[in-house]
Each structure stands twice: as C-alpha cells, then as structure tokens.
Amino acid sequence: MKNFFLQLTKKQIRSKMLLKLKEQKEEERDRKSRSIKQKLFKTRIFKKAKKIMFYIPIDGEVNTQEMIKEAQKLGKIVVVPVCKKNRIIRPAILQKKAKLKTGLYGIPEPTRKRFIHPKDLDLVVVPGLAFDRKGRRLGRGKGYYDAFLKKLSAKTTSIGLAFKFQILPYLPTTLRDVNVKQVIFA
C-alpha cells in the first residue's frame, strides 16, 4: 500500500481526500469528531494550554465546533485563523457567540477581530487533508499553515486532527512543508 501512495502526487492525494471527506456521512463525521475531541481534551498539552488556536471546519473536516464551545467553557482563550493574502495567517480571538463572516477561500472568521501574536499561543489545532504518523501534513496547497507553523514559539505544540482514512503511510513533502508535533484521529 505504501508503494501506491509513493506514486501519487500531492495534487492527486488532495483530490482523493477531498472526495472522501465529501462522501462521509454527517452522522459518521460527528461521531468521529466527538471521539477526536475526547482524545484531544485528555492530552496534557490541552489541559495546560491557556491560549488555543482552533480552525473552523470546512468541506467535511473534523468538526471543531463543540471543541471550541467546550474549551471556552473551560476558560481557555480560543483563537481562530484569519487568512490574509501572501500566505499570512493572523490569529484572532473568538469571543463566545461571535458573529462570523466568510473570509478568504470561504473560511469563516470573526466579524470583529482582536489579533494576538502567534508566539503567545500554547496549542495550535491544525486541519489537513492528509497526515502520516511522522506528523507530515498535506494541506490545501496554498502554504498558509506551513508559513504560520514556522512562526510559532518552540513551546507551542501543534496537533493535527484527522479521520482515520486521512492517515497515510507516507506523504510526499518539500522543504517548505512543516510537520505537526502530533496527530489525533478516529
């Protein structure tokens, strides 16, 4: 099976994963997302983290909505990415019941933004179309998260969230690609 993935380009893997995400039934996605949430919330890094950046899910990604609500209830400062041109992500605090608007690439973001510095984050929860067990990540191909992850403090942990079918034995990478420190999946 590893040989099969060695033959696929990043573009081909993206295409296959986007289709699998789209085909997954919503009930299944929600059930697996709850399982991933339980695993994430049990980690030592999550328990210790005060400022956590979550992504707001699109296109069938692991659903972080309940994670965000519960983290806020636990008193965590929740931050979400705001994408700017030139591969820049700016972390913005997400207030409880904040109004969202569609931002760059159709990604929801808060209408009112209060930004914080990336180095102030304790934990960054990262989306991806595919991961491998070494933390290699395949995103949507724009390089936003790779550029962002490079800016983080050494004390900031990055955790990728995925469904089991998104975990591949191998992912092709380039020098620009940045691994996550851990991947949680169900």
**Can you tell me the overall shape?**
globular
Distance between the termini: 20 Å
- CATH homologous superfamily - what is it? NagB/RpiA/CoA transferase-like
Count up the domains. Answer: 1
CATH architecture name = 3-Layer(aba) Sandwich
Task: State Rg.
Answer: 16 Å
Order of helical and strand elements: HHHHEHEEEEEEEHEEE
Q: Mind describing the biggest β-sheet?
A: 6 strands, mixed
Description:
- The protein is α/β, with parallel strands linked by helices.
- It has one domain (28-185): Rossmann fold, CATH 3.40.50.
- The protein has six helices and eleven strands.
- It has helices at 2-6, 10-23, 26-42, 44-48, 65-73, 144-150, and strands at 51-53, 77-84, 88-93, 100-102, 108-110, 123-126, 130-132, 137-138, 157-162, 167-168, 182-185.
- A six-stranded mixed β-sheet has the order 3-2-1-6-9-11, sandwiched between helices.
- Strand 2 (77-84) and strand 3 form a beta hairpin.
- The protein starts with a helix and ends with a strand.
- 31% of the residues are buried.
Question: What is the strand and helix layout of this fold?
Answer:
Blueprint: H1 2-6, H2 10-23, H3 26-42, H4 44-48, E1 51-53, H5 65-73, E2 77-84, E3 88-93, E4 100-102, E5 108-110, E6 123-126, E7 130-132, E8 137-138, H6 144-150, E9 157-162, E10 167-168, E11 182-185
Parallel strand pairs: 1-2, 1-6, 6-9, 7-10, 9-11
Antiparallel strand pairs: 2-3, 4-5, 7-8
Summarize the structure.
It is built from six helices and eleven strands. With 186 residues, it is an alpha/beta fold. The strands form three sheets. Strands 3-2-1-6-9-11 form a six-stranded mixed sheet, with helices on both faces.
